[in-house]
Design goal:
The chain is α+β, with helices and mostly antiparallel strands. The chain contains 10 helices and 5 strands; from the N terminus they run ααααααααβαββαββ.
Length: about 400
């Protein structure tokens, strides 16, 4: 099946119709570019000028859909028009075809046409003057420049501005797309951060509440129930305080609510005391000196989550928490008895290890968790920026 040319643009139809009607009007009025008795007129009469006029009208229909075909055909039509008395409408339509060939044609053609028409203009100026030695011969170059080089140069300028505008539009779209991607990534990162904070702050207290409430319900002993309820109340109060701190973080910057300070390594002793109150046998090595705030928060949360997991999963025995700073790295190590149990003492979401690994990765550190003989060990190496803690 033969390929068909696309339909002409509506504006091209108007241009072609206007050129044809204008040319017919000029023929009807007897207006031409050269008198019938001029020596360069080889085909006499007013009607032969209609052939190049009609052909050039067809070229106008192709000015946008097939610009190179229109230019080649239009050049042939203008050559034919030059041996007749001529029609101004044919000449004007040819200038528009040259302009359209540069504006809508392929990039290679758009670059070549101005050079070719420029050379023709120079040749049309120099050669006739060299042959005839008359100043009037210079007008040939002027006409060639006005008919060919002028429209080609105008088309190149318009195309250059159009391409620059399109490039600017594409850059703006890419910038907007990158900004949207950055915004989406920032939102996701913030949601992940808040999810880690919420999990680490609340899971410890809720796990203790679940374990001691189970003990209070299963053991028919008033003293045991009283102790369990005391622990439940303490963890409920602490959990509520942590939730208020989280709400303070979410409302950071408001006038009525100031977020509480983030936990630091100085709070590890209180964290360990709370774990002991929940029934764990915990020992804590002396924490290192001051480290940057992000490292402090990450280390605190890793220890907190490790103690929570030990409360839920560890076998009876001693839990060891050790922090040491060496070679620009803060080593965090939490070991708990490892063995087979019927099941966890409290339900879990499985997000704790993921959150600890994310905290270490955000600081450029490493994280490992797994059994080592009879112990389950959590290890994190958090890089510490040398200098004053931030």
């Amino acid at each position: 099946m033969a390929a068909t040319l696309p339909r002409p643009h509506r504006f091209d139809l108007y241009v072609a119709a206007g050129g044809l009607l204008g040319g017919l009007l000029l023929v009807g009025l007897g207006v031409s570019t050269r008198p019938d008795d001029e020596p360069t007129v080889l085909v006499h009469g007013s009607w032969p000028v209609l052939v190049p006029l009609v052909v050039m009208t067809g070229c106008e229909l192709l000015r946008r859909t097939a610009p190179r075909t229109a230019l080649l055909t239009g050049t042939a039509a203008l050559t034919l028009d030059s041996v007749t008395t001529g029609n101004i409408a044919t000449l004007l339509m040819f200038t528009d075809v040259v302009y359209a060939a540069v504006l809508y044609g392929p990039p290679a053609s758009a670059r070549r046409i101005p050079w070719i028409t420029g050379l023709l203009t120079v040749a049309g100026t120099i050669v006739p003057f060299a042959v005839w030695r008359r100043p009037e011969a210079l007008l040939i170059g002027v006409v060639v420049g006005a008919v060919a080089f002028g429209p080609a140069a105008t088309g190149w300028i318009v195309r250059d501005h159009r391409d620059a505008a399109e490039a600017a539009r594409l850059r703006a779209e890419q910038t907007a797309l990158l900004a949207e991607m950055d915004r989406s990534q920032a939102v996701l990162a913030e949601r992940a951060r808040m999810a880690r904070e919420l999990h680490d702050m609340v899971a410890n207290h809720l796990s203790a509440i679940a374990i001691h409430s189970t003990a209070a319900l299963s053991i028919d002993d008033p003293e045991t129930s009283r102790q369990a309820l005391t622990v439940i109340r303490e963890n409920s109060v602490d959990g509520l305080a942590e939730m208020r701190r989280l709400i303070g973080i979410l409302r950071d910057g408001s006038e009525d609510h100031e977020p509480a300070a983030a936990p630091t390594l100085d709070g590890l002793r209180a964290l360990v005391d709370g774990a002991r109150a929940n029934g764990l046998d915990v020992t804590l090595d002396t924490p290192p000196g001051k480290v940057p705030a992000p490292v402090e928060l990450a280390a605190y949360r890793i220890v907190q989550e490790s103690l929570t997991n030990a409360l839920k999963h560890a076998c009876p025995g001693r839990v060891t928490v050790c922090l040491a700073r060496r070679d620009g790295v803060l080593d965090v190590r939490v070991s708990s008895p490892y063995g087979h149990r019927d099941g966890p003492r409290a339900p879990g979401s499985g997000a704790g290890l993921v959150g600890m690994r994310e905290r270490a990765a955000l600081l450029g550190g490493t994280f490992e968790a797994g059994p080592e003989g009879a112990l389950w060990t959590v290890r994190a190496a958090l890089p510490v920026t040398e200098g004053d803690p931030q």
